[in-house]
Amino acid sequence: MTNQGAIVYWKNSSLYLNITNRCSNACLFCVRNYRQGVYGFNLQLEKEPTENELMNAIKQELSQDFSELVFTGFGEPLLRLDLVINIAKQVKRITNDKLTLRIDTNGLADLTYPEINVLEKLRDAKIDKLSISLNTENAENYLKICKPIYGPESYESLLNFAEKAKADFEVRFTVVAIPQVNIEACQRIADEMAIPLTIRQYNGPDFTIE
After folding, report:
1. Which single residue of 40, 83, 120, 144 has CA 20 to 30 Å from 207?
2. pTM to 2 decimals?
């Protein structure tokens, strides 16, 4: 790991953006709880990068053979919605729409921006894919494990966000395989909504739910 928090990092054909360490959830299984970063990059930011800093970093890497740009990192990227939109538009323009754009999100943007049609903005910015963290099989477990700042309505909002997103984006759910989550029930939810589910392995320390 390097000492300075990376604002761009990569693995295989994906270039990732680390635009914030803030999140509207405090998931007990989050990698931030037990690691400084991923793929050999330190993702703990000393300050949030500016749009110019991110674009300069992206342009330096675009000569390499990346197929997608992913808004993700050590926080919830849609907490910086305007920055995501601006960068997406610029990247699509300079790559002639050849680079796929994906956002990894907790799906709570409608609660963050109740007066804004977030999905419409993302569609206009030509975002291609949304990876939404389903995380648990019901609202009660979601509150206990993910600890959303928006409270009990968070899980239903997440599901509604995903349902609406299917019309304009390639959408998938993700869930981390921890003992406290019923993976089979998560799969049933995903199947009922006709959204693919990706199951991620958990490599962190044991934890308990209070």
Report:
1. 40
2. 0.95
